[in-house]
Amino acid sequence: MAMKLSGSNIEKEVYQADIPVLVDFYADWCGPCKAMSPVVEALAEEYEGKAKVGKINTDENQEIAMEYGVMSIPTFIVFKGGKAVKKMTGMQDKKTLVAAIEEAL
Q1: Which of 101, 11, 5, 95 lies closest to 49, judged by CA?
Q2: How far apart are CA 43 and CA 48, in angstroms?
Q3: Distance between CA atoms of residues 65 and 35, nearest Å
Q4: Is 30 an annotated catalytic residue?
Q5: pLDDT given for residue 15 in this prediction
Q6: For residue range 12-43, what is the model confidence (pLDDT) as tens digits?
């Protein structure tokens, strides 16, 4: 299951992670975000132990969304070594997200 990220745990779970992290910036009211949810959850299971997958609610964490220039959702950012290395905006197919994670591994 994708972990829920917020200002209180992003430092430990993303910035200090020793494996790549895919972060899904979403909101509960966002239709495309809901459509992406099963894909995000599947990736969390498939990459368990190799990469982390997390979700961050942009309504509840606006400062983090602004920090990464998230203007529309869903936005997916891959972090490696605590740094954002790839950013994808809008709905993505699973293959694209897998390629982004694999690139960071």
Answers
A1: 101
A2: 8
A3: 20
A4: yes
A5: 97
A6: 999 999 999 999 999 999 999 999 999 999 99
Peptide bond just before 74 cis, omega within 30 deg: yes
Sheet holding 3-5, edge to edge: 3-5, 52-57, 21-26, 75-80, 83-89
Helical residues (DSSP H) of 1-105, grouped into ranges: 10, 31-46, 62-67, 94-104
SS3 assignment, position 7: coil
Quote the pTM value.
Answer: 0.97
The single residue of 2, 5, 33, 64 carrying the catalytic annotation is: 33
Q: Which of 3, 27, 30, 42 is catalytic?
A: 30
CB 25 within 8 A of CB 76: yes
